[in-house]
User: What shape does this take?
Amino acid sequence: MKEFRINMSDEPGSLAELCETIASKDVNILTIVAISGESASAAILTDNADATSAALDGMDAEYSVADLKSAKLDHKPGSLAAFTRGMGNSGVNLTSLYVMSIDGDSATIGYTTD
Assistant: This one.
């Protein structure tokens, strides 16, 4: 799975335009986070990386793509803390992290590194 990080303009309708453009390629957005501050950006996971790239290229968007890795953790307090501490102690810089699903006593996370 691929993570797309998109730079956007910080104005009303920018996120709608992004979502509409991706939908027009018959791509389903599985996960999205959008943040605005000094700049606006979104990170998305979709069900079709090639079509997502084509959609973003068509709207002349500035974006980057990263491989999403995954891990299964116990679904209990401290599991995510232990995972992130282990990565940090190993010198791995996490650049994003998602809770993908929770199923009973386990949680699946997705993450990217640099």
